[in-house]
Design goal:
Blueprint (H helix, E strand, L loop, with lengths): L3 H4 L6 H11 L1 H18 L9 H26 L2 H23 L2 H24 L13 H18 L6 H8 L2 H10 L1 H4 L10 E3 L5 E4 L8 H22 L7 H13 L4
Antiparallel strand pairs: 1-2
Helix pairs in contact: 3-4, 3-11, 3-12, 4-5, 4-11, 5-8, 5-11, 6-7, 8-9, 11-12
Length: 267
């Protein structure tokens, strides 16, 4: 069995750390596991109408949200806190979008049109870097075809008068701007290279000298991460219940009671 010192998180010994982390944070993991099982049961109750874009987009976002949520749990139990934070930020983006659509169905059409900007940016980037060793997958269109497509996209943007929609816009529409300005902003240091955020990897003595590099399993903030992930899924599930006209079973009340009880730690 490879040791942690030799293989890090890929070591066979990580199973021992998972057991330890789950035992020490039992209540948080139980909340998330109950939510995960409930989320999966709801997925099979959703009736999606092919002619109704809000249901199509939201159901796809819901699958992504559940995958993000499960990834957070997997990372957290291993002590991969920064990786869990990165996925938590992804989950928050899903939450902002789903709740925004729940409150205003027109957000779906904004998202679809907003894809024009992303496609245009991709094509422009490819044009700038063609012939510079870019990895390719599948058939690559000719420069003439790219120019033709860019022209078509620009005409569509002009005709529709569409404006770029940001994550902040979605958070505002969802009525969750406080979450955006707190949890989402705090997690940005994990996604982007940030000098202050990198200090967590160093043990510094009172004289300001570096004693050693910190690495391996860590569970600092594991309660915050799992609770925020659970909170996000609860917001998502509430929107799902309205969008798909679902009635939740009694187990939903038990999950909410557990969530409220654990939330007192942070209040």
């Amino acid at each position: 069995m490879n040791s942690i010192e030799k293989s890090g998180f890929l070591s066979g010994q990580i199973s021992q750390w998972i057991k330890k982390h789950r035992h020490e944070n039992k209540l948080w993991f139980e909340l998330c596991e109950n939510l995960n099982q409930f989320s999966h049961s709801i997925m099979f109750d959703m009736v999606i109408h092919n002619e109704y874009p809000p249901e199509i987009i939201v159901s796809s976002l819901y699958v992504r949200a559940m995958s993000n949520f499960q990834g957070i749990i997997i990372m957290a139990e291993r002590g991969m806190i920064n990786e869990a934070k990165a996925l938590l930020r992804c989950l928050l983006e899903c939450m902002f979008t789903i709740v925004a659509i729940d409150k205003d169905k027109n957000v779906v059409y904004q998202l679809v049109l907003n894809d024009l900007f992303q496609r245009r940016d991709y094509l422009k980037a490819y044009k700038r870097n063609r012939g510079k060793g870019i990895l390719k997958s599948g058939k690559v269109p000719s420069m003439k075809e790219i120019d033709k497509l860019l022209k078509k996209i620009n005409n569509e943007i002009k005709r529709s008068s569409v404006k770029k929609i940001t994550i902040r816009n979605l958070a505002e529409k969802a009525g969750l701007i406080t979450t955006y300005d707190s949890a989402y902003k705090l997690l940005s240091g994990t996604i982007h290279v940030n000098a202050r955020d990198l200090e967590q990897y160093l043990e510094i003595n009172e004289s300001g000298e570096i004693k050693k590099i910190l690495w391996g399993p860590d569970v600092k903030e594991i309660d915050f991460i799992l609770f925020t992930a659970a909170e996000s899924m609860i917001f998502i599930l509430n929107s799902i219940s309205r969008l798909f006209s679902l009635k939740f079973a009694e187990s939903w009340k038990s999950i909410l009671n557990n969530y409220d009880s654990l939330g007192k730690v942070f209040s």
